[in-house]
Design a protein that fits this description.
Length: 466
């Protein structure tokens, strides 16, 4: 492999405001919306110590101890390395970019820097994202602020799949053992597959978090006894097994649950023999029959085609605009839900604001339950006493199942809708506050926007809309 001449990469001084944060930043989990700068900032500020970085910049100065790498994509320079530092600088220049709960914090820091704002910074321009990956890999696997194991796995898997490289090619490029790359890709696929297991919501939440011991899971599934029993491998961009899906899911569900409940860990399974013994033991507990008897064929990346635009409500001949537009008959498979939607088509938009907000929230809650019911997974929405979890928890469980969404744009809209401190003017938090009387009366535009979030979910229910 030829040696890269990094000294030939140009250096430029660019405006902080014009730099674009990386939507594919490995620090950001795949289920977090990253369509806008505010959405990216919201996650980084809450989870990646951006506030501490901003404070140090104000009190100690912006120390160029490590270069900031960018690359030009279309007409913009995208930050590949240094997203946290650039995020801090952006919020120091414009505190309103930060989540609403952090406005005061960044405004205070902004005021301290008002006499000497940092509006431009020096950057190194990489020829392409791919050519910068060697630099990023070295920085975040060898240096003081390493990526987490999940973040590193996501970075490697993306390089393997999106750039069409083999495991061997990536290992050579990053100067890492082939087995380490294979383990990283496998762990990334499995961490994405966990939502297929229909785990209880509390277990699922822990399994999808960065605190989950994915390395323990990786050691188990990499054991020869497991591989021989399951026949698991990755072909192209697809995770496959030889055993039926129901049996693989039961096996993986047991392993994940045991890890979370601390029944197993690296000390208990401290060698190959212990892991093999554990696999042999739990394999005897697997069901003999199940619903899905075909082997697993799970594709993580299904292409990058642009999302289909969200369909707009059909215009009606009625001169009076309704809370829920007329002209459609919704058959969700739940009579009560259908009746409530029909009632919304009789309420004039702009009238009975509180009643309208209550109605839309009820429709949203029932629609979420109906979607899970139509998929045969209603138990995920219920607690041990068969009562429904709160609405935000059930919506979160739905967004954890992107394969149920035919349109990625609808999933992204829903993720933004439930995001805490959402930068959008329409959100679940806002709707809840309206319903509980914590805000002034909701306006017509707000309620209309909420219905546009709900309608695609209604259409996901069992029976299609005529």
């Amino acid at each position: 492999m030829s040696r890269v001449d990094y000294f030939s990469w140009p250096k430029m001084s660019l405006s902080v405001s014009n730099l674009k944060l990386d939507r594919n930043n490995p620090r950001i989990p795949p289920n977090i919306p990253t369509r806008t700068t505010k959405e990216i900032l919201e996650y980084l500020i809450k989870n990646q110590e951006v506030k501490d970085i901003a404070d140090k910049i104000v009190h100690k100065g912006f120390i160029p101890h490590e270069p900031i790498y960018v690359t030009k994509e279309k007409d913009s320079y995208v930050v590949l390395e240094g997203n946290r530092r650039v995020s801090a600088l952006k919020c120091l220049l414009d505190p309103l970019l930060s989540p609403s709960s952090q406005h005061r914090y960044f405004q205070r820091l902004h005021n301290l820097m008002s006499g000497n704002p940092i509006e431009k910074i020096d950057v190194i321009v990489a020829p392409s994202r791919e050519e910068a990956e060697d630099v990023l890999f070295e920085l975040h696997t060898e240096r003081k602020k390493e990526w987490s194991r999940l973040q590193k796995n996501a970075f490697i898997a993306r390089a393997a799949v999106q750039e069409g490289e083999t495991i061997e090619q990536i290992a050579e490029r990053f100067n890492v053992n082939v087995t380490d790359i294979q383990a990283a890709v496998t762990e990334h696929y499995l961490s994405s597959y966990l939502i297929e297991l229909d785990l209880p919501s509390d277990i699922e939440e822990k399994a999808l978090s960065e605190k989950f011991h994915i390395s323990t899971l990786g050691r188990i599934v990499g054991n020869s006894t497991f591989l021989e029993f399951v026949g698991m491998r990755i072909e192209g961009t697809t995770l496959k097994t030889d055993i039926p899906t129901f049996k693989f899911n039961s096996l993986l569900k047991k392993i994940v649950t045991d890890i979370i409940e601390k029944k197993i860990n690296s000390r208990v399974l401290n060698d190959k023999e212990a892991i093999s013994s554990y696999i042999e033991k739990i394999s005897t507990l697997l069901p003999e029959t199940g619903e899905n008897i075909t082997p697993v064929s799970f594709s993580l990346y299904k292409g990058n085609s642009p999302p289909v635009p969200t369909p707009q409500p059909k215009k009606t001949r009625s001169k009076t605009e309704m809370l829920i537009p007329k002209g459609k008959i919704y058959e969700t498979g739940n009579i009560k839900l259908d009746i409530l939607i029909n009632e919304g088509q009789k309420i004039q938009a702009g009238k009975y604001m509180y009643s309208s907000a209550f109605l839309l929230r009820t429709i949203l809650e029932m629609t979420i339950l109906r979607i899970f019911e139509s998929q045969g997974k209603l138990e995920i929405c219920l607690n041990d006493r068969q009562r429904t979890h709160n609405l935000s928890q059930n919506i979160k469980s739905l967004t954890n199942r992107p394969q149920w969404f035919q349109n990625q744009a609808h999933l992204n809209d829903l993720l933004s809708f439930i995001a805490k401190d959402s930068p959008r003017w329409v959100s679940l938090e806002t709707l809840n506050r309206y319903v509980h009387g914590e805000f002034t009366i909701p306006d017509k535009e707000m309620l209309t926007a909420i219905w546009l979030i709900i309608e695609p979910l209604v259409l996901m229910c069992n029976k299609e809309c005529n």
